[in-house]
Design brief:
This is Septin ring organizing protein MID2-like. This protein has 474 residues and is of the alpha+beta class. It has 3 domains: 139 residues, PH-domain like; 100 residues; 162 residues, Sandwich (Immunoglobulin-like), CATH 2.60.40. It is 41% helix and 29% strand. It contains 9 helices and 19 strands. It has a 7-stranded antiparallel beta sheet with strand order 16-15-14-13-19-18-17. It has a 5-stranded antiparallel beta sheet with strand order 6-5-8-9-11. The two termini are 22 Å apart.
């Protein structure tokens, strides 16, 4: 049964690869049936929706311009009213000064006539401008309230236009043409491009190559034969100029499997050396037995970029940094205690982690899984109509609904059947572990814990194509 199951899985993978090659060949020949393509994806309703949206957007823009014009008029009226109030205030102040001056003059005359008077009382003049100031304040408050309301309307309209523009971009359809993503590595950045338009607004994706992370997995010590009989355990120590890492202790064996993963963050492509030392624990003391060295430079990082690169470094007898000991060891005929140190290297840029949005790997298995997801992340693998339903899934209910779907990378984009509006996105990444697949009568069901989503296709051909894609991704 295991052999038959393995043969079935191999056949599925071979069928999937033949499907990809067939699609690539069809794209090169540039021959297809226009009637069938139009039946699969009729864009007429979509164009009507876009035209109606454009007219609505233009109306909103016109209303926004009218509101701005009204706001400018209100501001001009406010400035005029403020100027009139200032002129009125100046006139009132002038009258008040004249009244005060006249009363002062009268008081001086009375003082001259009544020289025996001891005190001169000057009557206070009432502040006739208080009522005007109150009216002015009320006018300013009402104008400010009106301007505040207008500003809120303008902000709401601007936000609605921005949201509609984003939604319109998401609604833009992507033609189904599964082609491999071409990777062009440059000195400072990586350009991910395709011959056909991608999901990301049909633009090439440019990612900075640095900063990034260098993943190093010390896998095993091959062909270990110790020359000492008192060795209790061994471990490997990695050293750079300002960093070191030590593996766990392992008992002696001809093939010592370690499988320890650690990460170095690189800010640039500066050249540096990485030294590995084989250490032996002997009665409470550590003896350095063998060593090997690797140079990390631009060419090395290009070779391990987004790929899991296997490297076998040859051990040599340990040479201390002391010049005198190095001279003595030069004439020594000692052999190293092991033959090879097997390791895996992989470099991934920080921006690519942000784009793929998957947690950073913490084991060799997770690293391989991440690279596999990244490999399929930028390609569109399937598009067509189907019936959908699900349990505990936000984008569908337990009732069958006819939808148009696209499988882009590990995301299933779900559109309305008629308007082609984007309804939601279903992420397959969370369904790659602990999943259960049920297949029957053109139905494909994915179950993960308490969640499930089911697809039903009208034709056998569409069902088999979707099944091959899901088998490769999941």
């Amino acid at each position: 049964m295991d052999k038959k199951k393995k043969n079935d899985e191999d056949k599925d993978i071979i069928d999937f690869m033949e499907l990809v090659e067939e699609n690539i060949q069809n794209n090169k020949n540039d021959k297809y049936d226009e009637t069938e393509e139009n039946n699969i994806f009729d864009i007429k309703p979509l164009m009507e929706d876009i035209d109606s949206f454009t007219m609505r957007e233009s109306n909103i823009t016109q209303d926004m311009n009218n509101v701005l014009i009204q706001e400018n008029i209100m501001q001009d009226e406010h400035q005029v009213s403020v100027q009139d109030a200032n002129i009125m205030q100046d006139e009132v102040n002038a009258i008040q000064d004249n009244i005060i001056q006249d009363e002062v003059n009268v008081s001086i005359q009375d003082m001259n006539e009544n020289s025996n008077a001891n005190n001169v009382i000057i009557q206070d003049v009432p502040n006739v401008s208080i009522q005007d100031n109150i009216l002015q304040d009320e006018q300013e408050v009402s104008i400010n309230e009106e301007l505040k309301v207008l500003n809120q309307k303008v902000e709401l309209m601007a936000r609605e236009i921005e949201d509609n523009e984003k939604l319109n971009k998401m609604r833009s359809p992507v033609d189904f043409n599964p082609k491999k993503t071409e990777i062009i590595s440059t000195e400072r950045s990586i350009i991910l491009c395709k011959n056909d338009s991608l999901l990301f607004n049909g633009e090439d994706i440019k990612l900075k190559k640095y900063p990034g992370y260098l993943f190093i997995n010390i896998y095993n010590i091959d062909k270990y034969i110790s020359s000492s009989s008192d060795v209790e355990s061994v471990f490997v120590r990695m050293e750079t100029k300002d960093f070191y890492y030590e593996t766990d202790n392992y008992p002696e064996d001809s093939n010592i499997k370690i499988n320890n993963l650690f990460v170095l963050r690189l800010k640039s492509q500066d050249k540096f050396k990485m030294k590995f030392v084989l250490n032996q624990n002997k009665s409470g003391r550590v003896v350095k037995s063998s060593e090997c060295e690797i140079c990390i430079d631009k060419d090395f990082l290009n070779n391990v970029h987004n790929v899991l690169h296997e490297l076998k470094a040859e051990w040599s007898p340990y040479r201390p940094d002391n010049i005198f000991k190095k001279f003595l060891n030069f004439f020594s005929s000692d052999l190293s205690d092991a033959l090879y140190l097997k390791m895996f290297f992989c470099y991934i840029s920080q921006e690519e982690f942000d784009k793929v949005d998957i947690p950073m790997p913490n084991s060799l298995f997770d690293l391989g899984k991440w690279l596999n997801i990244r490999k399929h992340f930028y390609n569109t693998w399937f598009s067509g109509f189907c019936n959908m339903r699900g349990i505990n899934v936000e984008i569908c209910t337990h009732l069958w609904k006819r939808r148009f779907i696209k499988v882009h990378g590990y995301k299933i984009l779900i559109y309305n059947e008629i308007t082609k509006n984007l309804l939601g996105i279903f992420d397959l990444v969370n369904f790659t572990n602990e999943k259960e697949i049920n297949e029957r009568e053109n139905k494909y069901k994915i179950i993960n814990n308490e969640k499930s989503i089911e697809f039903h296709f009208d034709s056998k051909e569409k069902y088999l194509t979707f099944k091959k894609v899901m088998t490769a991704l999941l």
